[in-house]
Amino acid sequence: MSKGTVVLAYSGGLDTSCILVWLKEQGYDVIAFLANIGQEEDFEAARIKAEKLGAKKFVEDFIWPSVQANAVYEDRYLLGTAIARPCIARSQVKIARRENAQFVSHGATGKGNDQIRFELTCYALYPEVKIIAPWRIPEFYNRFLGRIDLIDYAQKHDIPVPVTKKAPWSMDANLMHISYESGILENPKTHAPADLYLMTKNPEDSPNTPDVLEMEFTNGVPVKVTNVKEGKSKDSPLDIFSYLNEIGGKHGVGRIDIVENRFIGMKSRGIYETPGGTILLKAHLDIETFTMDKEVRRIKQGLGIKFSELIYNGFWYSPECDFVRHCINKSQENVQGKVQLSVFKGQVYILGRESPKSLYNEELVSMDVQGDYDPCDATGFIRINAVRLREHHRLQGVSTIKK
Amino acid sequence: MSKGTVVLAYSGGLDTSCILVWLKEQGYDVIAFLANIGQEEDFEAARIKAEKLGAKKFVEDFIWPSVQANAVYEDRYLLGTAIARPCIARSQVKIARRENAQFVSHGATGKGNDQIRFELTCYALYPEVKIIAPWRIPEFYNRFLGRIDLIDYAQKHDIPVPVTKKAPWSMDANLMHISYESGILENPKTHAPADLYLMTKNPEDSPNTPDVLEMEFTNGVPVKVTNVKEGKSKDSPLDIFSYLNEIGGKHGVGRIDIVENRFIGMKSRGIYETPGGTILLKAHLDIETFTMDKEVRRIKQGLGIKFSELIYNGFWYSPECDFVRHCINKSQENVQGKVQLSVFKGQVYILGRESPKSLYNEELVSMDVQGDYDPCDATGFIRINAVRLREHHRLQGVSTIKK
Amino acid sequence: MSKGTVVLAYSGGLDTSCILVWLKEQGYDVIAFLANIGQEEDFEAARIKAEKLGAKKFVEDFIWPSVQANAVYEDRYLLGTAIARPCIARSQVKIARRENAQFVSHGATGKGNDQIRFELTCYALYPEVKIIAPWRIPEFYNRFLGRIDLIDYAQKHDIPVPVTKKAPWSMDANLMHISYESGILENPKTHAPADLYLMTKNPEDSPNTPDVLEMEFTNGVPVKVTNVKEGKSKDSPLDIFSYLNEIGGKHGVGRIDIVENRFIGMKSRGIYETPGGTILLKAHLDIETFTMDKEVRRIKQGLGIKFSELIYNGFWYSPECDFVRHCINKSQENVQGKVQLSVFKGQVYILGRESPKSLYNEELVSMDVQGDYDPCDATGFIRINAVRLREHHRLQGVSTIKK
Amino acid sequence: MSKGTVVLAYSGGLDTSCILVWLKEQGYDVIAFLANIGQEEDFEAARIKAEKLGAKKFVEDFIWPSVQANAVYEDRYLLGTAIARPCIARSQVKIARRENAQFVSHGATGKGNDQIRFELTCYALYPEVKIIAPWRIPEFYNRFLGRIDLIDYAQKHDIPVPVTKKAPWSMDANLMHISYESGILENPKTHAPADLYLMTKNPEDSPNTPDVLEMEFTNGVPVKVTNVKEGKSKDSPLDIFSYLNEIGGKHGVGRIDIVENRFIGMKSRGIYETPGGTILLKAHLDIETFTMDKEVRRIKQGLGIKFSELIYNGFWYSPECDFVRHCINKSQENVQGKVQLSVFKGQVYILGRESPKSLYNEELVSMDVQGDYDPCDATGFIRINAVRLREHHRLQGVSTIKK
C-alpha cells in the first residue's frame, strides 16, 4: 500500500533522479515536477511553450518586483536563486493540491538557504503539506555519503547518469542568473577558474565596442529596450529580459565573487553572474532617483533592503513580504521614462535620461538662471540647521572648561 | 577703518579671486586660505610638504572613516566632494580663530550643497563666526551676472585670469575624486563628452591586461596594498590611496553619471570619477562581510546609510555624526585580512580573501563534510519559522470563505 | 491701491486681531479665516454646523490616520497641535484660491514649529502663494515688543481686548488636545500649576470608580465605543472622539510634561493633555498587535515613527507623508475587533480583546494542549539560531588565546 | 555508570523538582542551581548575601542597560522576564564549566520564549554544552501530561509538593517584574482577576496622596533617588531599584495586559507588573530627551527598538547585542541630571527636570527674549524645505492636466 503521493521538485540531475527512485522504494507514489513545465507532454513544441510560460511568470511575478525594489542582498547579491525558489515551489504546491498529494519533496541540502525558501513557500501556500527533505533524513544521507554512492545507486536502478564530467563545484541556473559554490570554491581564498562562467563572456575576450541601449520604464519596470545603433527593440517582459541577458552576457556584465551570510548563520562563498539583472539594476536606480521624491526614496530604500532580506531568507510568501511589495509597488507610480546606457567590458555606464514625470527642474537647478529660487533663503536654512550644532558646541565648551 | 578680518577659502580660480578683491573693496581685511596649505610660503618644498600634510589628514580623518562605513549616497555617489568640505572648513576655522578673524567667506553658489557643508562646519566649530557668502548677497550676484562680468572685474583690478578656455561645465577636484556639473551637463539627457574625464582613462583606451592587487585591512582600513605581479607595495595611508587612484585611473575605474537629490530639495545631475575610492569600497565590502557577524552587519549597514546622508548634507561635525562614526568604528574591530582583486576596463573584480578573524568556517559550511552541524536541526528551524505563515494562511482562508 | 488680498488665519485672540488691523494698515485687503468655519455667517446655528463640519473633517482626515499609525513624537507627544496645523492651512488655502488671494498670513511665532507646519502646507497646496508672517518681519516684531504694545495698539484701533487675565503661559486648544508652553513654563524645572489643565480633571479629584469602555475597530479606526456599565454607545467619528475626550477628561487621562526637540533644533518644554487620543492609542496598540502579523508590525512600527516625525516637522502634505500614510493604511486592513478597557485616575487599563481577524490561536499557544505544534521543532530552531553565536564565541576564544 | 553531569536551573517548584529526580532516573548526576544563589549553603545569612549578590548583578548588568535603552518590546512590554534569563543562564554556565558538567537543563516549556533565551545564552557562552530540555523530549512530555502526573510522580519520589493551591495561571517573578500567563488567561477576552497581582496594589485601593521623587541620573542610569517629602534617599543600584519597586508597588504602577508576538511566531497573552521599571522608564525618557541632541536621539531610538527585539528573542549574548549595547552606552555620556516626578494611582507624572548637561537653552527658546536667534532665518529655512514640495505639486498639476 502506498504511503501517499509526493510531488518532487525534479531537476533531471543525479541527486533528484536518485531521490525519485528512493522515494518509490520507501513506498510513496511520486510525481516528478520539472520546474517551469508542469506537464508531461512529449512534444517539443508543447515543452517550449510551457517553458516560456514558466519563464514569463518568473519575469513578471518575481524579477520585476525585485527590479522595482533594487533588491540586493548584503550590498552585492542580486538574489537570482532566492527569487527562483518561491516561483518553483508555488507551481509544485499547485500540482500537489490538484493531485491531492499530501507530500512534497526536494533535493536541497541541509546546510543551505534553498531548503528554507522552498519549504517556507510550501508551508505558506499549503499549510497542511508534509515535506520530505531527504538530505536531512539520516537514513538517506548516511546511505549516500558521496557522489560515488549516488552513481552506484543510479546504475543499480537503471537511472541514466549524466556522462559529462562533474565540475568541481555545484551550480544552479535559471533565466536570471547562474550561481556557483561548493567544491574547490569552498576555500574563500581560491580564485574562480576562468572557465567557470557559462552565462557571461570573460571581459578580456568581450567585444571592443560597446552596445548602447535605451531602456524605457513604466511603473518602475522596463517596457521596452532598444539597441540604439542597431535599431532593434524588444517590448514584452520575457523578450526584454532575455535580450538584456544576451547583451550583458556578450559584454561580461554581472560577475561577482562574494562571501555572504546564509539565513542559518553560516558564511558561504558564492560566485554569481547576473548579466541582464545587473543592467536593469543600474538603469532602474537611475530612472528612479530621477523621478522619485528624495524623501520617498529614502523610505523606499529602507523597504528595499528589508525586501531583499526577506527574499533571501525565503519569506517571499509571507504577510510582511506582501506588505513591503505593496508599498514598493506604490512608490513606483511615477517611475517612468527612458535611460540611455552603454554596456562594455563588464561594466554598465549610464549616459543620460529623460522622463515626463521627473522632478528634475533644469531651470531651478541651473547655475546660470535664478529660476523660482531665492539664494538668500539658503542663509536662513543653513542658520536654522546650525542652531543645534552651535548649542552642542557651547555645551561642550562649557563641559571642557569645567573639566 | 576695517570692518574686520575675513578668512576666505581661496581656490585660485576666477570666482574666489574676484571675491577676494571685492571683500577688500567692501572694507574687510582678507586672509586668503588655500586649502590643504595654510601658509603663504613661497618655497615650493614647503608648499609640497604642507600639501601632503593636508592630503594625509584628508585621507586619515575623512576618507578612512568613509571607507569603514561603505559610505555611498543614494546607492551610487561616493561623497568625494562632501567629505572634502568639512576638511577644508576645519582648517579655515582654525586659521580664523588663530588670527582673531570674526568672518569667514567662500565662493560656493547659493543653490548647492557645498555652501551648507562649508557653513555648518564653521558654525559647529566656531559658533560665533560670521559668514559672508557673496553668491547669496544681492549686491554681489546682481553685479556679477555672468562669467564676463567677473573677467571684466578681474582685468580692472589686475587679477590674473586663467588663460585656459573654460570648459562648458564646472568641476571640483580633490585627492578622492573629480566632480563635473552645470553648463551643458544641466540637461540630464545630454551625454557627457568623452574628453570630460581627467582622473580616469576611458575604458576603451585602457590597458588590455588587468592589474592584480592584494589589499590588507586592519580595523576596516587599508594598511597595505601590493601589486601582485609587480611585487610593488605601499603602506602609508596617503601612499596607499594615491596608488589606488593611479591604478584605478589607469583602468578607467569609478566613473558614474547620476541625478542626485541635493539637501535643499533640488535634483541635480553630476558626473563623478572616484578611482581609488571605488576599488576601496569593493575591497572593504568583501573583507567586512567576510569577518563581521551577519546581524552586526545589518545594523551597521543602516548606520552606514545614515552616515552617508549626514555627510552629504554637511553634518560631518555634528553630535549625531560623531555618534555614528564612533559606532561604525567600533564595528570594524575585527575587519582584518587580505583581499585579492583585479582591476580591468573600468571594473573591479574580487578574486579571493583570507583573514585571521573570519567567522567563515570552511568545515561548517562544506557540502562534503558534516562539521559541527546536524541537518535535522534545519527541519525544526524551518517549521518554527513557518508557524506564523501557516497561521496567516489559515486566517486568510477563513476570511476568503467568509467573504 | 491695495497691495493684494491676504487670507489670515484668525483665532480671535489679541495677536491675530492686531495682525488683522496691521495688515490693513500696510495696504492689504484682509479676509479673516476662523479655523473650522470658513464663513462669515452671523447665525449661531450655521456657525455650529460649520464647526462640526470642520471638526468632523479633523477627526476623519487627521486624527484617524494618526491613530492607525500610533503616532507619537519622541516616545510621548501625541501630536495634537501638529496635526491641527495642516487641517487649518488646507482650508485657508482653499479660501485663498477661491478668493484669488495671493497672500496668506498667520500669527505663529518665529521660533516655533507651527510657522513651519502652516507654511509648508500652504506651499505644498498652493506653490505660488506668498506668505506674510508678521512675527518674522522686523517692522512688526520691533514695534510690538511685548503684550503691552499689542494692547495699546488694540485700544487705539478699537480692537476688543479679551478682558480675562492672561495666564502666565500660552496655550493652544483643539478637539484633540490642549498644549501649554512659554511664560513660567520656560523654566523646565518649574512644576506646572495645578490650575493649568482645562481639558482633564486632576486625577486627585477624579471619580473613585472607573468607567469601562468597549471600543470597536475596523481598518484600524474606531467605529463604535460603548460604555459597558451605562450601555451608552457612539458610532460616528466625531461622536466617538468627543465621547472619549469626555471620559478621558473626567478621569484625568493624557497629561504629560515633556521637553521636546523642535524642528528648528531648539529644545522646548511643553505640557499637553490629550484625553481621548490617549485612550485611543492604548486601545489601538492592543487590537493592532492582536490582529497584525508580527513582522508586518515591526515594519509598520518603523513607518509609524517616521510618520510622527513628518507630522511634527510640518510635512503632512508631502510626497513622503502621502506614501507613508498609504502604507500604514494598507497595514490596517485586518485591524478589526473589540477592546475592553477601563479608565481610572489618569490611567487606561486594557482588560481584554476579541477579533474575527486575530492571528491569535488559543489552541496553538496553550500550555495545556499541544495543538498543531511539535515542541521538538524548537530544538532545531534554537540550534540553528545558535550556529552564529557559537562560531562567534570560538573565534573570540581563538583571538583571546592568540593575544 | 553516570551519563554525565547536568546543571539544572532549579526553581524549587513542582516542575523542576520532578525534572531533577527524572534526570537522576535517566542516569545523570544533577547539580541543582537555584538562580541568584549558586551555593548550597544552609545558613540563612549566607543565602541572603548570595541573593543580594545575584540581585545586584541583575540590576547593574541587565536592568541598567535596559533603562539606558528605554527597552520596550512591541511598544509596551518592559522585558522583565527576558532580561532575567541570560542573567540566570550566565551563572548556570559558570557553574557547569567549573564543575566540568557537559549538560545543562531547565524547566521551560517547548512553546515559549524562555527556552530560547536560556539556550542561546548557554550556546553563546559555552558552545560545546549539551542541553536537556525535558518539555521537548517525548518520553518526558508524554509521561507528564498534566499537573496530576507531576504530583503523582513527586509523591512517589518523596518530592515535597507545594501545598498552596495552584493559581489557574502560571507566573514568573523576579526583582524587576512578575508575569502571568496561561490557564484562564489564555482566552484573550477574559479579564484578569483582581487578586492576580502580587507586586502592585490595585490603584483603586492605593493611597490617595502621591509620593514625589527626585531621581538623579549619571550616564543614563539612576545614581540616587530621594523621596522629596520624606527626605529619605537611596544611592546604590540595588537599593534604588528596590525602593522604586516599593513606591511603584504601593501606588499600583506598571500593570499591563497585552497580547504579544513570541519569537517562535505565536501570539500569546501576558499580564505584567513592573512597578520600579515603569517609573524608571518615564524618568529616563525625560532626562534623556532633555540632555541628548535631537538627531542622536532619533538614531538611538532605533537602536533601542533593535535592542529590545534582541533581548526579547534571547540574543542578549550575541555579537549584535554587544554592539548595540556599546552604542547605546556611548549615547548616554551626557544623560545626566535630576527629574522630579510624582507617583499616584497607577500613574507616573513628570514634574520638572534640571541638568548641567542640558542642551535646553531657556533664552534661546523664550518667547519673550530674542536670544541668539534671528526669526528671519526661519523664512529661508521654511522656503528651502518647501522647494521639493512645490516641485512635487507642480508635477502633479502637470500630470493631472495631461490626463
UniProtKB/TrEMBL annotation, chains A, B, C, D:
Q: Which domain of life is it from?
A: Eukaryota
Which Pfam family is one of this chain's hits?
Arginosuc_syn_C
Gene responsible for this protein: ass1
Can you name the source organism? Liparis tanakae
For this record, the Gene Ontology CC terms, alphabetical, are: cytosol
Q: Which residues form a coiled coil?
A: none
Q: Which UniProt keywords apply?
A: Amino-acid biosynthesis, Arginine biosynthesis, ATP-binding, Cytoplasm, Ligase, Nucleotide-binding, Phosphoprotein, Urea cycle
Q: Residue limits of the Arginosuccinate synthase C-terminal domain? A: 169-390
Protein name, as recorded = Argininosuccinate synthase
Q: In which pathway does it act?
A: Nitrogen metabolism; urea cycle; (N(omega)-L-arginino)succinate from L-aspartate and L-citrulline: step 1/1; Amino-acid biosynthesis; L-arginine biosynthesis; L-arginine from L-ornithine and carbamoyl phosphate: step 2/3
Gene Ontology terms for molecular function:
argininosuccinate synthase activity; ATP binding
Q: What EC number(s) are associated with this protein in UniProt? A: 6.3.4.5
Q: Which reaction does it catalyse?
A: L-citrulline + L-aspartate + ATP = 2-(N(omega)-L-arginino)succinate + AMP + diphosphate + H(+)
Q: Name one GO biological process term.
A: argininosuccinate metabolic process
Tagged with keyword ATP-binding: yes
Q: What CDD domains is this protein classified in?
A: ASS (cd01999)
